[in-house]
Write a structure and sequence with these properties.
This protein has 115 residues and is α+β, with helices and mostly antiparallel strands. The protein has a domain at 1-44 and 87-115: Alpha-Beta Plaits. It is 19% helix and 30% strand. It has 2 helices and 4 strands, in the order E-H-E-E-H-E. The chain has helices spanning 16-25, 73-84, and strands at 4-12, 32-38, 59-69, 93-99. A 4-stranded antiparallel β-sheet has the order 2-3-1-4, with helices on one face.
């Protein structure tokens, strides 16, 4: 069974359409998208220096989860970085996790076969 990884991307709402198309062209076979609220170290501001005691402002984001074979993770991460990069606050974050197994309920397929 090949090793699998979960790539989780959190980014602004406006970036999804282009990212989805790029992931599809790269051969990603499944995607889960959740609308979430959140902020990073800037606490939801559009400025680089945040005042001490500034209360967080939660902004609308999308959390995009995909599971791919681990040997494709570097390629996928580079693609995501290229699609999301503007150089400004809010470009997003990418998290990568190891996956023990995936099972397709309908067929019983496991691992990469279940993707």
């Amino acid at each position: 069974m090949s090793e699998l990884s979960k790539v989780e991307i959190i980014t602004g709402m406006s970036k999804f359409t282009n990212l989805k198309a790029a992931l599809s062209r790269a051969g990603v076979r499944g995607i889960t998208v959740t609308q979430v609220l959140g902020c990073g170290i800037e606490k939801g501001t559009r400025e680089y220096e945040v005042e001490e005691g500034y209360e967080m402002e939660l902004l609308p984001k999308q959390q995009i989860s995909i599971v791919v074979e681990s040997d494709k993770v570097d390629e996928i991460v580079e693609l995501v970085k290229q699609e999301l990069y503007t150089g400004h606050i809010g470009d997003g974050k990418i998290f990568v996790y190891k996956i023990d197994n995936v099972i397709r309920v309908r067929t019983g397929d496991e691992g990469a076969e279940a993707l």
